[in-house]
Amino acid sequence: xxxxxxxxxxxxxxxxxxxxxxxxxxxxxxxxxxxxxxxxxxxxxxxxxxxxxxxxxxxxxxxxxxxxxxxxxxxxxxxxxxxxxxxxxxxxxxxxxxxxxxxxxxxxxxxxxxxxxxxxxxxxxxxxxxxxxxxxxxxxxxxxxxxxxxxxxxxxxxxxxxxxxxxxxxxxxxxxxxxxxxxxxxxxxxxxxxxxxxxxxxxxxxxxxxxxxxxxxxxxxxxxxxxxxxxxxxxxxxxxxxxxxxxxxxxxxxxxxxxxxxxxxxxxxxxxxxxxxxxxxxxxxxxxxxxxxxxxxxxxxxxxxxxxxxxxxxxxxxxxxxxxxxxxxxxxxxxxxxxxxxxxxxxxxxxxxxxxxxxxxxxxxxxxxxxxxxxxxxxxxxxxxxxxx
Length: 389
Known about the structure:
Residues 1-19 form the signal peptide. By secondary structure, the protein is α+β, with helices and mostly antiparallel strands. The protein contains eight helices and 13 strands. It has three domains: 9-171, no CATH class; 213-330, Rieske Iron-sulfur Protein, CATH 2.102.10.10; 347-379, no CATH class. Strand 9 and strand 10 form a beta hairpin.
């Protein structure tokens, strides 16, 4: 059976329906090309079948006739945003034409290498034709890379334009709110100054500045021991880096980089095999210290990925993400004498950690908010104040 490998589908991971989500979702993400293969017998696809196969992919309307018409020397942010969207549509169409060229050249290569065609051509003629096709293919591939760079630049431009639009909308809304809330004549000068100051928005999306290196040199609890069973994995993010927890052959927990050294596949998508985490892509297996001990289908090389010191104490899994040597003692999370643990809960909340700490330390709200869960039957505290030493 002769296998016919056919390439190429263009995939632009972007939606223009909801502009406020694009800049966040694709910040730092580049457009790319998805490739798929169609396998079958050589005689199973006729010319009409091939045409219908690629028709939906390549028969895309040329967007140049629909280019936005902007009058004047200057554009407002909305016109610029529309122009950036048009750039992406044009790059999409241009890339599809480049890929069509590669497909046609691929079919010519198949035709030249056809066993029936070789009987009527000399070796010199075949070499000449293949050399010409190789040159055309190289030029087509170069053009594809140019188109990919244009798509990436267009996506960056779109994200920038959307930031400008969102900033303009926020500025307009702030002006409208300030004009409605006019101060009364009885308001003091101090109150007027306070109202005129711009309100600072709370950034809950994460740290603006990089983490201080010393902040990593601590033991951090990252999982409950009961959740990390044998042959299970727990993926975590610590200081914006992906890690994965699992138990080794001795039953002790380990924490290694959640990225295979071979093809960067996330390891938590695989399985645990005899105390080693197995990559789901090519089956490479890593121990809890990050050393690769199995490389199927290839010669075993000395490969090791990053790992973190990992210990288990008092029902918790702890890791040390810093570069300094870890301390020999771990913090204790056991409650003081006379206190009882009501529940162990893991929650992921899209808030800044200071807000979460403020909520957990606020005991006065529990008898009113959590009446159906852990605070059921609690009495209202008479007085909450600072603890005297």
